[in-house]
Give the backbone structure.
Amino acid sequence: MNIVIVGHVDHGKSTVIGRLLADTDSLPDGKMKQVKERCEKESREFEYAFLLDALKDEQSQGITIDTARCFFKTEKRDYLILDAPGHIEFLKNMVSGTARAEAAILVIDAKEGVKENSKRHGYLLSMLGIEQVIVCVNKMDLADYDNKAFEKIVDEYSSFLKKIGIEAKEFIPVCALNGDNIAGASKKMSWFKGNSILSALDSFEKAPPLIEKPFRMPVQDVYRFTGDKNGKRIVAGRVESGSLKEGTEIVFLPSGKQSKIKTIEEFGNKTRKDIFAGCSMGVTLEEQVYVPRGEIMCIASEKPAFVSSTIKANIFWMGKEPMIKDKEYFLKLGTARVAAKLGQVFAVMDTSNLSKTSKEKIDRHDISECQIECASQIAFDQFNEIKATGRFVIVDEFDIAGGGIITELVEDSQGETREQVIKREGKWEHGLVSYNDRVTKYGHSPKLIILTGKSGVDKKSIAKQLEKKLFENGRIVYFLGIGNLLRGLDADISKSKRDEHIRRLGEVSHILMDAGVIVVATASDLGEDDLRLLETVTNRESVFIVNVGKESLEDGLVDLDLDPSTEAGKNIEKIVKLLKLNPLA
């Protein structure tokens, strides 16, 4: 069982663990002697915290900077203890450590009492879904082992925890320095009849195995073995929940691509009949479908992951600069990485008093209920259902600046189309020539290159010359102006039904791409919703969006902006340079 220990700086978290290890004989041989000799050599008083704080910076400053890990066991089970930093400047480390825990020990100094960080850490435990908590009231020696000092903290902090939906399993008065109530009952606090820290840990209940949850495997990569005469392709990743056997019908989200498991592969060319949560494996498919990194593999007959470009989430912001609207960030969930922006900020939580304030930005160390808008659709779960696919990080420039959990699905404008696409993929009749066969034969991956911009801006000249350039380079390519559809396939519907025209453009492009063709299409005045609709009907990984002119479209949605006054040949060079047309790219 993974246990995290948190609390305000200098409230004695590392000392609690160090004493626990010492009193249960869990230290490596000679470790205690080594630390004591070092303290004596440096004329410093021995501290049990030194058994944990291995970093020089930590020992010199007396604080925990990183998340220290240690192992010990009782008669009941094995434990991994995570000692998370309490200082506000290292909350990022505390959050990353806490995210891996199943239960928590929250330490409060008996003399200093409940501090703002005590409340902030309690709220983070709640936010990260940790429901099993014991509160360790440490340094009782500084309060003269007084029952009233202990009860005061119990009353104040249990009232706070109740407001955030946590009920502490137990409050335990301890003196870690002297070992009181760590591994056994304390004679100095005979008034306390509850558990010691050790027996309280054994009272925690293990969460149901992740194998009982719906199957989720974020796709890490797809490996093609060129030496194999059949062009073997392995879809690899780590199973986060559920289990799966050979022959199972599966669906990849958000694309909706469906197939059946042919084989399950282990490293070293080994095969097996099943995989389950915690396994890092690969699979081969009966029907070869294009699957990019970031998709989540689910079992077709189970509850699927949600898909949307908009999510409601709780975010804890750790960036030096505030999270603001109209700035592009990157959201990383599982193996997916998409451009994202801060949408609506519903509330910012003041953890010291649980009051909610209205703000248009999220400052450092704020916890906010907000809406995140992604440039393209992603697959996910609600955090309270499957944690691994329900939490994410926000990247600002090159730094992880925030962490969050998904609390609610927000339906975007492509929801109905997405359902239709998943049904289409589930019933799609494949021929005897696979996607991989065509890519290998033609020497390129299929693409939809869509050129858009204001009416009157010349897009067709660029598109037609691009078609010619790609054709002369040996590519299988076709120009498709939306006007050709309006006067043909779309002649039965009015021009006012814009969404349907866009959908049909996407469906025709999808068929041509399934045939291995690079489609160069043009359509004027496409907005962000139109482009997302096209991506939903086809596949974002296979769409290359070019904006011609000064039209301002959302960052992360457009792949290339072109100046129509620039010579067409130079614009075409820019497109070709950015296209990823390599086989099986």
User: Anything to note?
Assistant: The first strand starts at residue 2 and ends at 7. The radius of gyration is 29 Å. The chain has four domains: 2-202, 211-299, 307-415, 431-578. Residues 307-415 form a domain with the Elongation Factor Tu (Ef-tu); domain 3 fold (CATH 2.40.30.10).
